[in-house]
Fold each of these.
Amino acid sequence: MRHFLDFEKPIAELEGKIEELRRTTDAGGIDVADEVGKLRDKAQALLRSTYAKLTPWQKAQVARHPDRPHANDYITALIEDFTPLAGDRAYADDLAVVGGMGRFRGRAVVVLGTERGNDTESRVKHNFGMARPEGYRKAKRLMELAGRFGLPILSFVDTAGAFPGIEAEARGQAEAIARSIEAGLEAPVPFIATIIGEGGSGGAIALAAADRIVMLEHAIYSVISPEGCASILWRDAAQASTAAEALKLTADDLRRLNLVDAVVAEPLGGAHRDPEGTIAALGDRIAELLAPLVELDGATLRARRREKFLEMGRSGVI
C-alpha cells in the first residue's frame, strides 16, 4: 500500500475512492471509467497544487518518506559491475555507509552512500543510516583508494546525522568525520555528491565535501534536524516546523545561497512516485557535471574545491 504523509490526506481520500471504483468495475463489470477519469484528474490537480506550495517542514517529511529510493537503489540502477568494499581496516565494517567500485556509464568510479534501509530488518541492519566512526573511516579509505587509482568519486547522501551513541563518541566520532571531510577536500579526482533525501549535520558533510553538490528537489540539507533545533532553541520538538523555516534547508534555499550546485526536479508527488524516473534524471545530471571535471588534473581539482568551500565562509552563509 502507498504511504501518505499527513498533509496528503485529501489526496489519499481521492485515490482511495478511485481504487474502490476500480474494484467495483472488476467485481461487477460496471463501467465507471468516466467517474474514475474525473476523480483521477481531480487527484492530479490536488497533488499538483499541494506540491506547488510545500512548506520547508513538509519538504522535510517528503525527504524522509519511507518509500523514497535509497542509496542502494541508486547504486543498483546507475552503477554497473558494482563490487562492495567493506571495513575501515581498523575496527569493523559499518553498514550505514555502503561503498565500493563499479562503472558509471562505462567509466570506473568509486561509490559511497549512506543507506537507511527500507523495512524494519534492513533499517536495523543499516542503523537507520546513522554511521559510526568506522563508517566514516571506511569512507576515508575509499576516497584515498579513488585518489590512488585516479577514479572519480560519486556519493549518495541520506542520513539524519552521525550516530550519537556513547560508544561512537568513545571511538572518536568527531575525529572520524573530520578525517572523512579532509579526504574529500584533498581527493585528486572528480567528486560529485548528491543529497538524495536527508542531509543532516556533519554526518552528511563527511560524504559531501565535493566538487559539485547536487540535491533532489525535495531533499533537505542542514546543520541539524528541525526537531533537534527546536529542542535546543525552544525546548519543544513541536516547534520543528518553525525551525525548518529558519534553517533554510530546502534545495531552493541552498541553491540561492550557492551552497549546492544543482537541483534535480522530482516527479509530481516526490521521488517515491516514480523512482526509476528520478534515478534516471539524476544519472543524466551527474554525467553532465562529471564530464568537464574529468578533464582537470588533481592539483586544479583540489585548488578549486578548496576555494569553493572557502568562498562559502567569506560570503557569511556558513
Amino acid sequence: MRNRIPLRIYSSPPWREQRPTWQDAKPALIEAALKRATARPSGNWYVAGASRDVVRGKVCGRTIAGREVVLWRGPHDVLMAGSGSCPHLGAPLCDGAVAGGDLICRWHGLALNGKRFGMWTPYPAHDDGVLVWVRLDEAGGEKPLPAPVLPARPPEGSIDAVATLIGRCDPEDVVANRLDPWHGAWFHPYSFANLRVLETPTGELDRFLVEVTFRLAGRVGVPVVAAFTCPEPRTVVMHIVEGEGEGSVVETHATPIREGRTAVVEATIAHSDRPGFALARPVAGALRPVMRWAAARLWRDDLAYAERRYALRRDGRFPD
C-alpha cells in the first residue's frame, strides 16, 4: 500500500564525501549514447516553444536553425507558421498583426493566410497541446515526417509547465548533458541526493535508469526511479517509472537558433494518481511559475556544462 505522505527523511553524506562518479561516467559510453540519439530521425521537426506562447490575435516570432519563423493562430485557432520575412520588401513579420486568422504585415498591409505567396513560404506546424513544432525541411535535410516524434506522456488531467533558456552551445551539447546522469548529485546538490545509476544503455534497451532523491528542504525529499531516453535527435525525456509522481515526464528539447546558439525548451508534465492531485489542477496557473523556476534553476548550471563542452569542442580540446 502506498504511503499517504510521499515525503521521506533521507540521509546522505556531505558533498565532498560522496562516492566519486567519474569512473562510472565513461566518456565513450556517453558519446555512444549521443551518437545513437543524434542518428534517430526527427522528420525535420523543431520545437518552437510552448503552446501557450502562441495566442489568438498575436504573432510569435522565433529564429530556428538560422531562419526567421513566425507562428500565429489561424481560423478556429489552428496553428500556422511560415517565413518571418515579408515577400514584399522583407519587413519582419514578427512585428505584424493578426486579423481574421490572417497575418498582416505592418509595413504595407500585405495579408498572408498561411498559403504560399510569391517567395513567402508556409511551414508545416504542429501543436501537441504542450509544445508547438515547426517543420523546416531545408534546414533538417531528412525525409519529412507528417508529425513530430513524441514521447509517451501522462493522461489528461496532468499539469504542464514550459521553461525556455538560451545557451552558447549546439543541441548536441544539451543532449550530452542529459546523457550524463552521474553529474547530478555533484553538480546539483541543492536538488539531488543519493543518485545511483542502475542501468546504462544496452543493445536491447537504450536508456539510463537512475535512482535519486529529489531534495525539498533540509533532509526531506522524494525518492524516485527515472528512465532517460531519446526519442529523436534533439530530445531527451525523463519518465518517472517508480515512486511519487509515477508517469510524470520531463522533456528537454534542444532547438538550434544558429551555430553556437541553442534554445533549451523544457516541458515538465506532472502527474499523480493520488486523490489530492485533483485539488492541484484548479490552481495549475499558480503552480506553473514554480515549476518553471525549478527547471530554470537546474538549467543555469547545466547550460554552463553544455557551454563548456561546446567551447572545448570548438577549440579542439574536448577529451577523447
